[in-house]
Amino acid sequence: MLKIGIVGGTGYTGVELLRLLAGHPQAELRVITSRADAGTKVSQMFPSLRGYVDLAFTHPDEAHLEQCDVVFFATPNGIAMQQTRALLDAGVRVIDLAADFRIKDISVWEKWYGMTHACPDLVAEAVYGLPEVNREQIKKARLVANPGCYPTAAQLGFIPLLEAGIVEEGSLIADCKSGVSGAGRKAEVHTLFSEATDNFKAYGVAGHRHLPEIRQGLANVIGKPVGLTFVPHLTPMIRGIHATLYGRLKKDADLQALFEQRYANEPFVDVLPAGSMPETRTVRGANLCRIAVHRPQGGDTVVVLSVIDNLVKGAAGQAVQNMNIMFGLPEATGLNVVPLLP
Amino acid sequence: MLKIGIVGGTGYTGVELLRLLAGHPQAELRVITSRADAGTKVSQMFPSLRGYVDLAFTHPDEAHLEQCDVVFFATPNGIAMQQTRALLDAGVRVIDLAADFRIKDISVWEKWYGMTHACPDLVAEAVYGLPEVNREQIKKARLVANPGCYPTAAQLGFIPLLEAGIVEEGSLIADCKSGVSGAGRKAEVHTLFSEATDNFKAYGVAGHRHLPEIRQGLANVIGKPVGLTFVPHLTPMIRGIHATLYGRLKKDADLQALFEQRYANEPFVDVLPAGSMPETRTVRGANLCRIAVHRPQGGDTVVVLSVIDNLVKGAAGQAVQNMNIMFGLPEATGLNVVPLLP
Amino acid sequence: MLKIGIVGGTGYTGVELLRLLAGHPQAELRVITSRADAGTKVSQMFPSLRGYVDLAFTHPDEAHLEQCDVVFFATPNGIAMQQTRALLDAGVRVIDLAADFRIKDISVWEKWYGMTHACPDLVAEAVYGLPEVNREQIKKARLVANPGCYPTAAQLGFIPLLEAGIVEEGSLIADCKSGVSGAGRKAEVHTLFSEATDNFKAYGVAGHRHLPEIRQGLANVIGKPVGLTFVPHLTPMIRGIHATLYGRLKKDADLQALFEQRYANEPFVDVLPAGSMPETRTVRGANLCRIAVHRPQGGDTVVVLSVIDNLVKGAAGQAVQNMNIMFGLPEATGLNVVPLLP
Amino acid sequence: MLKIGIVGGTGYTGVELLRLLAGHPQAELRVITSRADAGTKVSQMFPSLRGYVDLAFTHPDEAHLEQCDVVFFATPNGIAMQQTRALLDAGVRVIDLAADFRIKDISVWEKWYGMTHACPDLVAEAVYGLPEVNREQIKKARLVANPGCYPTAAQLGFIPLLEAGIVEEGSLIADCKSGVSGAGRKAEVHTLFSEATDNFKAYGVAGHRHLPEIRQGLANVIGKPVGLTFVPHLTPMIRGIHATLYGRLKKDADLQALFEQRYANEPFVDVLPAGSMPETRTVRGANLCRIAVHRPQGGDTVVVLSVIDNLVKGAAGQAVQNMNIMFGLPEATGLNVVPLLP
To answer: Could you give the CA distance from residue A243 to residue A155 in angstroms, rounded to a whole number?
Structure first.
């Protein structure tokens, strides 16, 4: 049994981690911290967990996280980088669901996140936790930077095209749509029910923090920079990301075969039959990315449709997948949740 | 391993059965029938099941249901009563998720359902599958009439009050609200997205088929008829029933203790702490009824709030619970799905 | 042209007032105040009003409200009572959309609202602005207390029954369901999209501030106290209240005729044909209450279904209706907005 | 007063026409036809119109449409082309909200719509009713082809760029998202509430009927063919289209000024300030297109965000606008409906 700690479990990625770990046969949830809610039972804040999670929130000062095998940070950006070194020094492995360790270029990170980084050397050590790209390194990692939700959906869609060298790298477009839970559980006017329902809008068109993360990931694949236009949108659903990805073909290829072969051995990437259009609800609650590839009207524009549940394959589920890999467990342990439809 | 057949698996209770059985360690799904969709892969109709269910729909004539241990009917009313006798004769146990065997008084059933009943003797034999009331009989049953969704939520809320004899039996009120999936997967105008979204309405005020079912269940508890006003409403959510139940108190009682004691040993009924107000999302996807009891302003009206997922504890989950009981399996086998929140 | 001021126009009742007044041919919107957003253009906060409202928010200290003919308070409770006397003294008429002047019994008000009242004498003067009851007094009023949303829906449904003396006054039940906009535009966790969507819950069962308001209104109708159980619920839609009202009949009556006669001359109350079930969307955006009355199964329980748009007939629309009455305009001026369906 | 007939008013564009015409001071609604619902009161099918529209549906054979000044077709494709010639011959002007007269190349139309066209000569005569392009021709038209919803949003966004000659014409991308009402009021499984809620999907990626319409409109602007990839998506809201449009810049330009100048005199196109991101709800119920133009990260990709209400500027509102133009009325007559927010 893995002894598990969670830092900051009062947001949506936190409660999702709890849901998944409550059903994980090798996970023993030892401690979950919250400064503001110390003493409160987890199941009081999230009554869905009554009967499944018996813990109360612990004050960070009394958490003894160093006694855990692995600690998840489900915190705002800038927290994990303050606490990770001590944990690593104590032999604890760390998975950060925030962005502290995702961007290798510290100056880029500091520009987009508006803070000075506390531990650039750990950024260098951290492994970007996209198993479909970095599985071998994740196995040995002490510190995993769990990918963002948009970056997961976008990278999994673009990677086969870039690896095969068949699209222009300089003019990629990622038109992405996210459910509202991606904005977190913080009380803000623009994510109120009465603001976000029956509405659709773009946001962050001038620049979104996931842009450099996607660019970095794609550049790593081909060993040179990519040009990417990334437009995120807010859509009135709770969970789900739908990435519609556009690239200009440089040469011909059997796109369907390309995608099927790339992900043939991936347990959590499902390439749909030719002509399919994936729906976000078909991955609701599950650690899955479903993908389809199209070439409309036989033109030179390839269109990839990639869907995930932003809280699962885009956050907590991928974190558990990374944990399984890091500790040598079967990769799907605790992740065999059938999507909830309807 | 139980060999399982499903008749009519193209509606919401059918796909929900498939979701739950796909995760049930003792269930071997042998056959699922559909006249219209024979040959189609289940996962083509419900892509959420890709990777979990490999079956195709089988034409009823080729289904060999008599080789199953148990057959679930997830069909419109009036189908199960045509096929049940042959299955029972072949030694197959039957769980009907429709209403064919729920009402003991054949004339009442025929009036509300507008058909002649095909096998009144089997109605007499059938056990009403509300485990919290009939667990012992379910163990021995060949044929279980799985309760309706509203009746499950309403009965579980009223039963402690009636058993204790503290409410007037003649003036019960059940003001119930259901998500739209309760109306099924049939294409109809009034359940279109653009009709049901951002809207709230009552329906069936003059009389709804679940009225005689609830009345029968409550009358059985106290051995005499009850007076009940039942008003169902359609609310713009996919899953969930919220029953707000009103009764006039005849004498004083510790209502909280009453409910806690009644359901102390029930694995799927959760009595919330005093003062709580259950939310339907806290049971989303799970075989749970969460209940709270209130006495507003200390008056003589008791208010019970009872929530279920209409497709789980109100249909497919309760059916699996009944199957577990019938076959001597631990009652929660395959039903430990943590609710999906948010 | 009426010179109009609005205090506190950054919430939902405020923007709704702006929407309606923008189309009102006799209204000249002079000033709208906001301490926090002074200087911001109204249409920047509410881009729906671009092209319709050109004003910017004014700091309260520079608003010169005393130059208006009428001032609307669309503020939190406790604000209007601080400023009303000065306005009345300056000859300005006041319509308060909050609760400061609704409850005649000051001690009751202070208990439910948790404040000391600043001007009990003005409470005595204020007219409760339900035109279907108090039209004549509204005509002469300097100060109108605009009713709450639940109280509007509930009172309009109960009044015909109580006036006719055909229901027991001691055991009324109001099971009410509200859209989320009723909770206002303040950032709070429980009204976030991801919390309120695909969910249904009761709240305030132990006691809600609209309970004494409804009780007062109904008691005034019959000249003696009423017994009322009021259970509000939150339903995942933006706008709309659906009140399901229950009473026990003391004697027989032609319920349909009773309601039709009571509201025969009311421009904003629509009694539906017998057997109807009103949908909230049929009043979306309009100053209408649609009502149906039922007697299920011919029993002794009468069920009234009453729907309004909580922001219109339940708030801003009724306020404009009151303004029209106060200033001798045709009552429907500016209120002929056709409901938006779908 | 214009005498108005509507053919086929039982769908969403029909009821929307009724809503708008009910508030149009120069419109006298004479007849509305429906074969299936002849004799039914319009307000029985659409209770939102109780008190606003008193007509009943008339059987087509008894409609005497030839006595109208103008007839709107709110019918499925293929109906208007059967009846238009007789109406024109009788001196009636016709506005078709379906697609029968939109595509000038008959072979293209027949390929995409799967029918033989009944009157190619009238297609040649018909004016494409996008006032921002064809206002002068609309004034004199006997027959107007009212544009599709996606084509309206996409063309208004692309036109300034193409007219200015600053984007590559061969690689345009229109990533469009539509509310569910765009699919109409026909009962179909995929638009059921329980299917479309909390879900997002692309559809018609291989080819959608609005693709040739957009291509034709854009080609007309520049006098040569354009290359366009068009991907429509279904988003869980009732009303609204959000078009996210991408083009590759060929030369520098002041994009903001370009758009502002192009639409300076357009009453129903609102160019938002630089940096804005339009929300669909800001046009809900109104005949408006709000547009913003961006150049993310200063790169060579221009991104235009264009929103409309698909039932208003994308259908019925634009039809009324065309009627106003055809009959010399002020263009905004009856169209000053303030958007409904929230």
So the answer is: 10
D174 touches chain A (CB under 8 A): no
| C192 to A197: CB separation less than 8 angstroms, yes or no | no
Question: Of C97, C16, C100, nearest to C335 (Cα)?
Answer: C16
State whether residue A303 is helix, strand or coil: strand
% pLDDT > 70, chain D: 100
Q: Which CATH class is domain A149-310?
A: alpha beta
ipTM of this complex prediction, to 2 decimal places? 0.97
First to last CA, chain C: 34
Q: Residue D10: CA atoms inside 13 Å, Cβ hemisphere, count?
A: 20
The CATH architecture one would assign to domain A2-125 is: 3-Layer(aba) Sandwich (3.40)
Partnered with residue A234 across adjacent β-strands are: A178, A201
**Do residue B48 and residue A341 have CB atoms under 8 angstroms apart?**
yes
B52 in Cβ contact with B46 (< 8 Å): no
Q: Which residues from chain C sit within 8 angstroms of residue B242, using beta carbons?
A: 200-202, 233
pLDDT band at C9 (very low <50, low <70, confident <90, very high): confident
Is C238 close to A193, i.e. CB distance below 8 A? Answer: yes
- Cα of A78 vs its chain's centroid, Å: 17
- Put simply, whether A276 touches D (Cβ < 8 Å) is no
pTM of the complete model = 0.97
Dihedrals phi, psi of C183, to nearest 5 degrees: -85, 0
Q: Give A149 to chain D, closest Cα distance, Å.
A: 16
Query: Domain locations in chain C?
Result: 2-125, 149-310
Q: Nearest-CA neighbor of D275 among D310, D244, D305? A: D305
Longest C-alpha distance within chain A, in Å? 62
pLDDT tens, residue by residue, B77-115: 999 999 999 999 999 999 999 999 999 999 999 999 999
Residues of B in contact with D284 (CB under 8 A): none
Catalytic pick among D119, D149, D176, D289: D149
- Which chain B residues touch C242 with a CB distance below 8 Å? 200-202, 233
Measure the CA–CA gap between C269 and A150, rounded to whole angstroms.
49
Rounded to the nearest 10 degrees, the angle between the axes of helix A210-222 and helix A131-140 is: 90
Among B307, B293, B235, CA closest to B261: B293
| Neighbours, chain C (3 or more CB pairs < 8 A) | A, B, D
User: Distance (Å, rounded) from C-alpha B13 to C-alpha B316?
Assistant: 6
Cα separation, C130 vs C148, whole angstroms: 10
How far is the C-alpha of C63 from the C-alpha of C57, rounded, in Å? 9
